[in-house]
Design brief:
There is one protein chain. By secondary structure, the protein is mainly α. The protein has one domain: Metalloproteases ("zincins"), catalytic domain (Zincin-like, 2-Layer Sandwich). The protein is built from 5 helices and 3 strands; from the N terminus they run ααβββααα. A 3-stranded mixed sheet has the order 1-3-2. 30% of the residues are buried. It binds zinc ion.
Length: 136
Amino acid sequence: MKVLSHKDMICTGESWSRTPPQLRIQMNNQKISEKTGGIFLWFLVKEKGLVCFKETGLFFSSRQTRRRWGTANSGTNRITLYRHSAWMLLHELAHIPVGVEKGHGWEFGETLDILAKVWLSEEWQVILEAVKGGDF
Ligand SMILES: [Zn+2]
């Protein structure tokens, strides 16, 4: 996975995000597995009560050289990740409740920040360590 030293590309809703740039870069360089993504979805729905993600399907594509880093379809609730990073997962997830037709506006930015807070929460970080340690 290509390591990034600067923020995401323009027109990706970054301007609406209040998550500090350094944390965004860090999360965009944080490689995650499909298993971790699935457990995060479970965490959002079952532990955080974010039922809007109940029907979300997550697919990690092996075509990582694609120009696009991910896609979301809020109609079919399907997310495909080409860049397997934590930030890209959060980005595509944010499209689901907001609706793809609304694009990368302020609602998208706020939703992305909420998801970033969940990702960075100690509660999730403990689970993440357990996933990496093979406890799951
Ligand atoms: Zn997007």
